[in-house]
Every structure is written in structure tokens, then in C-alpha cells.
Agmatinase (Dongia mobilis), 317 residues
Amino acid sequence: MSQHTTDTHAMMQPRYTGIPTFMRVALADNWDDVDIGLIGVPYDGGVTNRAGARHGPREIRNQSSLMRTMHHVTRINPYALARVADLGDVLFQRLLKHPEALDEIEAVFARVKSHGIIPIAAGGDHTISLPILRALAKDRPVAMVHIDAHTDTWDEFQGSKFSHGSPFRRATEEGLIDPTKVIQIGIRGAQNTTDGWDFSREKGMRVVFMEEFAEIGVDAVIAEARRVVGDAPVYLTFDVDGLDPIYTPGTGTPEIGGITTLEAQKLLRGLRGLNYIGADVVEVAPNYDTTGNTALVAATLMYEMLCLIAERLAATR
């Protein structure tokens, strides 16, 4: 990665050739020449039911070979605007010790931040957003756009404070996110208690339940997200179970009645120009989807995020 623009030669080759990397970009051994880093976090130690998201990054890489360079709507070519590289995966030494594994994730993203890189992570379960925020938002609380079927603001599960149902409760408690600048979109599904919903509301998060999303439409939700976030530094997190499981069956906690892929793309494209500090796509569990479609959807969402962040970077230079 010595060039100031991303080498797109590999992207022009047949898409079944080469070593799989995110979007077929170069695998970076030197992080000094990278603006946007695509990074896998193969961890699902926080799942409460169906495991398998640890295999998400590998399959998302495979399916991202189907991505091309230029966006058909915005005509953005992110590789012409920023230096993009695959940073590999977070590697673990204490994978089975949950809090320590989260520390390891945090340490990698602290290194990413120290190089001035904006990360787009592929999970892994939604627990990974907490250590990423610990690294990226260490100095001040940030805003957040959160697309999901669940608020992920629940408390302890089976005696653990850390699970894929609790990252944004912990992030609020730790001062990593400003709850008054958080919007949660697509929330739905029955629960055994109201704890998570209540926490989000009481802390000032804007919760857009799926019924409201369907009633007011994507454009109104975009406007509301932009109002909530404003010009604050913002983290973008997308749990694929926010989509209807007809599009993403390969996930741990599917909920019917969700967002369509077309609505998701329109939603993300409506968030152009925000002050992004990072993003993630999480909860792809390929073992529940033999078609590979869930990972393809996630790869496409990552590409949409890449376009957003590259455009923002170019505009601020």
C-alpha cells in the first residue's frame, strides 16, 4: 500500500480469482498509507442463542468479490477518493475469556485509530461494537446511527454484563455514546421484559420502531436521523437482523417484518455527508444460510458505507 490511490487492478480481474479480501482491495501490511480500513472481527462470544457469527467475516469477504468500483446511483468511486485496504482480522490470544477478548478487540481498533484510519468492521456478533467504541470514542462521547431489530440496551444475561444484547447500554454507561444523539431504526419483535426499550427511551435515544418506519417512510426516517445526529462525530452500526429475514436468514436472532434491502440502501444513501468515525456490519451467521445471500447483503452494505465515508473524507480535505 505505497500508492496514494487504491490499486484497482485486482478488481478488474475475474471475480473468482485471487486471495479473498474485502472488496478485492489489497491486504495491508503497512497501515501508514491507509485512509479507510476494512477489518474482520470473527467473534461471537456474546450470542444468546444461535452461534455462528464468528464465521461472518470470512464469508463476507467471499461475497464482497461481487462488488465493483463505481456506485450506480451516486457515481462515487470510493477507491478514487481514499486509500482503502483490508486490515485483516482481529487475532485473539484469550478468545474464551469474554471480557479479555473484548480488550483484545479494543487494542486493535486503538491501533487503527492511532494510524488515522477510519474502520469499517465486519462482525462477529453485536458485542464487538462496544470495544470498537471504547477505542474510537475514548476521548468524547459520539453520536450513533443504529439499524437493528433490537435496541441492544438490555442489561445482564445469564450473569454476564456483556452480550450482543447489551453493547449500547454499556456504551452509554461508559460515556462512549451520547444517548441524546442516538437513533435506533427498525426495532421490533416481542421481548420477555421492557427493560431495553425502557432504557433507550429514558436515556433520550430516538427509537424508531418498525411500525413507525413503515408509516412515515424512509425519507422521513433519514430526516430524523440527520436531525438527531447533526454534525457530531458519528458511528454507524448495522445489524443484519434489522432487515427482514427473507433477505438475511443467516443471522442469530431473526425477526420478521423488517426493512427491505432496497429501503436499507436508500436509508444509507440518505446519510451522506455525516461526520463518520467508523462503522460496522454485524451478526452474519453463514451456517444458517446456504445460499450465501446474507453475506452478500452484508458485503453490499459495507460497500455503501465505504462510499459514504470516502465521500466525506474527500470533502474534508
Remarks:
- The CA atoms of residues 147 and 238 lie 5 Å apart.
- The chain is about 35% helix and 15% strand.
